[in-house]
Design brief:
Chain lengths: 877, 111
Amino acid sequence: MNLSDLFRRWRALTHKNEMEKELDEEVQFHLQRDVERNVKSGMSLDEARYAALKSFNRLEQSKEECRSARGVGFIENIVRDVTYSLRVLLKNYAFTIVVILTLALGIGANTAIFSFANGILLRPLPYPQSERLAVIEEIARRENNTNIGVAYPNFLDWRDQNTVFESLATHFGTSRFSMTLGSEASEIRGSRVSYGLFEVLHVWPQLGRTFTMNEDRPEEDGVVILGYDLWQRNFGGDQNILSRKVVVSGRARTVIGVMPRGFRFPEESELWVPLAVTPQIYTRQDHGLEAIGRLKDGVSVAQAQSEMDTIAARIAEVNPLSNTGLNVRVTSLHESLSGNYRNALLILLSVVGCVLLVACVNVANLMLARATARQKEFALRTALGASRWRIVRQLLFESLLLALFGGALGFLLSVGALRLLLTAIPINLPFWMNFSVDLRVLGFTLGITLLTGLIFGIVPALQTSRVDLNDTLKEGARGSSGSGGRVRSLLVVAEIAMSLVLLVGAGLMIESFLRLRHVNIGLNPTNVLTASLITPRSKYKEDAQRAALIKQIVERVRSLPGVESASATATLPLNGNVWGRGFTVEGYPVRGPGQAEIVQHTVVTPGYFRTMGITLLAGRDFNDSDAKDSQDVTIIDERLARQYWPNQSSIGKRVRFGPVEDNEPWHTIVGVVSTVRHQRMQEETDPSVYMPHQKMPTAGMTLVARTSSNPHELIGAVRREVAQIDPDLPVSQVATMEEVVAKSIWQPRLYAMLFAVFAGGALLLALIGIYGVMAFLVQTRTHEIGIRMALGASARDVFKLIVGRGMKLTVVGVVIGVGGAIALTRLMHSLLFNTSATDPFVFILISGLLSLAAFFACYLPARRAAKVDPLVALRYE
Amino acid sequence: MNKQQSDLFKQGTLELLILRLLRSGSLNGWDIMQRIQLLSAEVLSVTPGALYPALHRLEARGLISAVWGPSDNNRKAKFYGLTTRGRKQLEAQRKQWEQFSDAVALVLRDA
């Protein structure tokens, strides 16, 4: 479009009336000349006029063509179409509101789920150039290549030998530290980290410095770095905090730095102390570290992986005993953090996408129904010279306007929906997940809004604009139902099919969740209170001190009124905390290096099994005589007992823990208990063994107490007892065991819930759709029904006719839907527990329920049809 | 004019004829219609529904310009005249047309 073109269009717009008048005059002149000529050739004036007009029969139409030739078309027509659309929409406000609400729900749900996915999968992590950060894990072939944690000497070799990382650092993950301020002891999430960690992350302290290489050594580690929030919370943002001594887990450390606001790593850590290990005390056998590196600019994860493979092979060659069967896995940090959610989020996105599609189909259906009523309007406009394209465009504008309003409202809804969604998540989501609205979310919303407008607008627009002038104008008010009805029936079939797919998906998720909830986890979680305790090694240096402290706390809690029994454990089941150890049975061949069987081991005090409702199947529980100098004993679970001693008692047999080559002492089995799902409710992982706390007094323990009534009532009393023994001991993570169990399956619960909500929404839309089509059918065929009844059809026949028609659509939809569901639900396989993706029970139940619901949707219109009075119907025009 | 002729009488051809007619001076729409009929010995005829949009298109493209003036029966009429651009366009299109029709003639003769 050149400049003069623009100018002309501008003039066309601004001088619209003038130009319109000119066009009129030009046409009038032409007519007059025609009339004159006709008169000259001998016609009467009337005849002459008639002939002229006849030759000019497309007068108005040619004016329209002139207008579009003039280029008024574009801008002016758009303005006119939009205002016209607005007028139409306002006039039919009931229709408009229904459509906007339907779309708002669809678009809102999509935006909410997208914001959720965006915050987890798409947003970069809050570290500079975070895409170059990668985690390096050690994986064991014998454990299906799962991450077993990094051994410190291996890490040192990686750091020295690699050429792909700009820098590497290691840390112990998040652990719990205690800090006392004033009279209150608090638990703080922190981490033991190697020097260079902050350099890898490219984050510099706001005050002071980071750790030096020397401080990695155990004797130099009396320093601490604080997170911004902790500094504000506990020290009021004191600018002179550097060099001050603070007591962390009972040990005085010098503050050397404060990290900037918003920085946390790993996970939620906001306090950092040096790693304090050496290759001598933390050997190649001790896998417990995590490693992170920053890739050099331009180096891909795959390149890093291939170099690390080489290095790992070299290390294994030199250290066959410890490193045989070990490999290294490099994953981008973002992927390693978000990978867990990816599959579920993608499935949820497709589910809401499907709901939106159903909403589109429904709106398209409504538009078609209305378009039938508007056919005269379009026929008239066509007669006056509007082109088909013009009418299509007009209808598309209406659709886009509706979509935009729906999108705007949906966007507002999504903000609330996202908040609701987040409250349904019982865990504290990692700090790096940020769900605020960004350009990507806005773009997504705008994109699906426009797409939605096109999808639901295009079919009605094309359908409606294909009007047969003569038919429509002649037919009167009845409107034609022919092909429009067919398209609408197709849409209903599509809706039913899509709803069925979603409902089957929801059914499978719910069935899976119910099965999960009824899994026998091997313990009775009712009326059990749990609370986490730390006995800082720096304050309770001796094993005996820690053992005595825990024993004292347990006894005090046990004596509280309302407590039936109490105990403590190092790893609370289903709380994401499991320790694995190598395991050898006396009399069985010793396996090669790296081949030892892995068991989960935990440390408990006497009375643990009774408190947790774990059944003692044979032998005895631990007791106070299982003390430091007595015989080494252990209790194993039923699974391990069956595995090694299927037909005999395992009591008295001996087992050994740790790597095969370290000659650890033999432990005698004194008891067998029922199998507990420690790690995940979904599956049994490794067998479990239990050790007495008196023998292995670990520092972090979880107090458990079985109560005779609501466990919540005892929280205050438990806190008081602990504070009386030592006010510096923080009591945290107080929860009932039922809450812990529920929390461990929050993801399947949330997904089942969302699936159910979305599928329910789709079902509702589909039912409205089929009801609408049937009601419309009855309305347009009243005349025909009247004739049938006049010819002897009974009310029953009519009822059957209408319901039969509706059910035919339903059955076709259900059949297609079942096919679609068989093809699609297998994608959800990874989300399902003990439930086949093609579970026939769910398929049959859902198909039946959907058909039943569809029957009721047809029932009302059919009953109305059956009540038609033939006399009235025949007169009905 | 029968169906066949109308098919041949495509938009581009009509525009070429209009340009050619206007080369000798300004004309109004009605005159142009009469002349096409006359000059083509009544073989070609144009309906107003085709003519006026064509005129407006040409005007929009800046190939012709319009002024209001008195017609021969002294009424106000819109007169179209060739612009410089229109003149060039006419020459170019005429050449094209001649090449085309020569080519068609050649083929028809040889065949």
